[in-house]
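S1.2 Input.
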Amino acid sequence: MINDLKLGIKLLKYSAQLKTSILMAVLFFLFGVLSTIFLDSPVSYGGLLIMVNAIWPVQLLYSINASTQVQSSSSKKKLQTSVPAMIHTGCELILYTIFIVLHLVLSHFHPEHTELLVNTILFTGIAAFLLALYTGTAYKYFFLSIALFFITYLGFTMFGNYFTYNEFNIPLSLPVTILIGYVLVILGGLLQYLLYLLFYKHNLSKYAQCNTMRKCM
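S1.3 Output.
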């Protein structure tokens, strides 16, 4: 597992549009942080914008998978299953930790937001879980995966907003909520890996690739 993580990190520098992806990741992260600071909602769109950055390394890895050289290599299966799963899960764990620390700092300076803290951290864990499932199918069934993700996320958003308007707080302690969030991230990573295995032999979707790689497919 650690070797898969190291391999994925090592290969990122050979991916297509690396600089563009890094720039996009930075912008998403900054927008996520700003949204987290200025928007009061348990759904926390800032949390989603921060967590979505775990997709960028997987996108870069799959641009490598689209090449004919990788398609004919002995590492083909690993590069479409365990490696992206490890990279995505590792990134989500880091990003989720950053999000939690950010919220704890905000609740210290703005005690009036403390009641939303538990809800927000839990819902961001759910968002991370949904993103993991989306990423597990998007590179084989791009449009279907996007549709399913947005339908699911929309339902969960409406559910979260209901909590806001009715001033309902989840009856969980902060440590338990954080633990549940981490469990959701890890569970999402495991299910993502199973989805990669399930759809491994299916053709890559060219629509999930950047324009440069799409022309080569």
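S1.4 Remarks. The mean pLDDT is 81.
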